[in-house]
Amino acid sequence: MRRRSAAPWPLAVPALIAIAFLLLPLVGLVARAPWRTLPSLLSDPTVGQALRLSLVTATLATAVSLLVGVPLAWVLARVRFPGRSVLRALVTLPLVLPPVVGGVALFLALGRRGLVGQYLDRWFGLTIPFTPAAVVLAETFVAMPFLVVAVEGALRAADPRFEEASATLGASRWTTFRRVTLPMIGPSVLAGAVLCWARALGEFGATITFAGNFPGRTQTMPIAVYLALETDPDAAIALSLVLLAVSLLILVSLRDRVLRAGTGGRAGPPWRRA
Amino acid sequence: MSLDARLVVRRGQFTVDVALGVGAGEVLGVLGPNGAGKTSVLRALAGLEPLTDGHVTLDGEDLTRLPPEDRGVGVVFQDYLLFPHLSALDNVAYGLRAGGLRRAAARRDAARWLEQVGLTDHAGHRPRQLSGGQAQRVALARALAARPRLLLLDEPLAALDAGTRLVLRSDLRRHLTSYGGPTVLVTHDAVEAMVLTDHLVVLEGGRIVQSGRPAEVARRPRTDYVARLLGLNLYRGTARGTVVTLADGRLTLAEPASGPVHVALRPSAVALHRTRPEHSSPRNVWAGRVAGVEAVGDRVRVAVGGRPDVLADVTPDAVAELDLAAGAEIWVSVKATELTVYPV
Q1: What ipTM was reported for this prediction?
Q2: Of the candidates A167, A180, A273, which has its C-beta nearest B69's C-beta?
Q3: Among positive and negative, which fits the CA dihedral A98, A100, A101, A103?
Q4: Residue A242: pLDDT above 70?
Q5: Which residue among A161, A170, A173 sits closest to B146, beta carbon to beta carbon?
Q6: Cα angle, residue A64 at apex, residues A84 and A151 outer, rounded to 5°
Q7: H-assigned helices in A111-232
Q8: Is the peptide bond before B308 cis (omega within 30 degrees of 0)?
Q9: Does B85 contact A at CB distance below 8 Å?
């Protein structure tokens, strides 16, 4: 006979308040949505443009994060060097940094007069701010730490002796990384990538600061939502619904496979002794 | 092919310092209690643990500074460390591919190795679908398939149940014989050490305390650890003529000896009696008290407290007849000819 323990009220009541607080705004969004005019609102070309730009830039930002973030996570987890913990703190700083500050910082580094930007401009004629590339960079800056943290955690939790076994079989460190390490932390990489993508999709502060707000070029969905709220609230609600739908789709499709793996359960074959 | 190594590994207060030599086709056993440094020895040979001092030379080539992947040293780990995301076949093919073979060729070769260890039917299975014994054989095949110049085995049978261990022990002997290169096998199992190795070193506290052929080590153990492992009584004392004076009691020998000696005694050579044996030939008779009774195979091992303490193996019938409960008063007799005496 299993007794279902009731939650004591000092826990139950605040928990209910939290649930209401988290769900009520979403209910409001759905309840107040202009369902009748929704098709015409969403068929506006600027909506399609913003949605397409958001999806493309978030995907590119995730790709860039995977390309350089996974190696960074490996270095932080596997290579011993002085100042490693300081470096780890610095590269995960964007997690806690207000995104607007990130945008300003990117501007000062890569803007036309920026630390690096002035040379890009002078030598290659490259101007980054206020371009789609700037959107991708702003999103990458803010979102990559999510991936790095997830992958580094998985690497630290993974048994390094599998990598040793690989080395004794003659595999180089690069082969070991590709054929042993990466497959073993695969679920965590995927989970990190999903988090990273979702964060990039919702990016607002750094993007509007560094990339501005040019419809079709740098106006992403969150920015479109914010601007529409002043001129056409119904359009803002419609756009928000789309973002909500995309988010729910991700969450549902990846719920079991990925989000759980991200918490780092370490399964082993039955004969393994701890 | 032969291995010559001196390994010094310092970790905090603990230092491992051993010299090893293994010829081609020879199996060197490293026997020792937990924490003696056995695994450090293997890891140092494989290049997984940096040497504080010393060298590793294989066929005259100095491996000391080479990383593990360039040494050609195969390892069978105690818990196998099969790659969980690869099938048994791909686990075995792993080293072949790392060695430059194409996928198809590596798999063909790996399939032959799986056949060698009798696991053709399990080629497609993931490690978690294999039993402990099967996983052990895949691990062995994986190490051998990479054609190592030196093979290291870390307690290869320790994680298996007794029945599986028995079968795999003789299989392992066969594979080690056909391997042909030098092998170092770490164990803390006496039978494994006796059956699988050609030469034995006993490691305690990071140092080699005894070295010799397995039969020699078994007959003349030099430390309590080895004696206990083999189930032998081992005494240390000073001999004068045919009498050895121990810290606790004395023993009479058949042949005279002198100076500090070890005296080894098989428990099966010890006789127990309810009353003092009067008209028998044994030269060593003393009184004691039963401290413990334990079944060992089809015999019963009786620990007797006395001067000196002794382990005796008797039949279950004798236990009933002598009423050998813990605390019982008992007489011990040992023939002088059953004592093996050798200098410390």
Answers
A1: 0.82
A2: A167
A3: positive
A4: yes
A5: A170
A6: 45
A7: 117-119, 132-157, 161-168, 173-176, 182-184, 186-201, 205-210, 221-231
A8: yes
A9: yes
Judge: A269–B77 Cβ closer than 8 Å, yes or no.
no
Confidence band of A264 (pLDDT split at 50, 70, 90) = very low
Which of B69, B131, B132 is opposite residue A171, by nearest beta carbon?
A: B69
Cβ <8 Å between B99 and A170: yes
> pLDDT, tens digit, for every residue of A66-123?
999 999 999 999 998 999 999 999 988 998 999 999 999 999 999 888 899 888 888 9
Q: Spell out which residues of chain B touch residue A174, defining contact as CB-CB under 8 Å.
A: none
CB B303 within 8 A of CB B311: yes
Q: Using alpha carbons only, what angle is made at residue B136 by residues B134 and B142, rounded to the nearest 5 degrees?
A: 105
pLDDT level of residue A37 (50, 70, 90 thresholds) = confident
Is B216 within 8 Å of B340 (Cβ atoms)? no
Residues of A with a Cβ under 8 Å from any B Cβ are 159, 161-162, 164-173, 175, 179-180, 183-184, 186, 268-273
Between residues 1 and 40 of chain B, which touch chain A (CB distance below 8 Å)? none
pLDDT value of position A2: 53
Residue A154 has pLDDT above 90, yes or no: yes
Q: How far is the C-alpha of B220 from the C-alpha of B262, rounded, in Å?
A: 8
In a 10 Å sphere around its CB, with 0-12 CB exposed, 13-18 middle and 19+ buried, how is residue A203 labelled? Answer: buried
Structure tokens at B331: 């007489």
Q: Does B48 sit within 8 Å of A166, measured CB to CB? A: no
- Please tell me the predicted confidence (pLDDT) of residue A256: 60
Q: Rounded mean pLDDT of chain B? A: 91
CA–CA dist B217, B327 (Å, integer):
33
Q: What is the pLDDT of residue A166?
A: 97
Angle, alpha carbons B173-B174-B180 (nearest 5°): 95
Give the per-residue pLDDT at A269: 41
Residue type, position B265, single letter: L
B128 with A270: Cβ contact below 8 A: yes
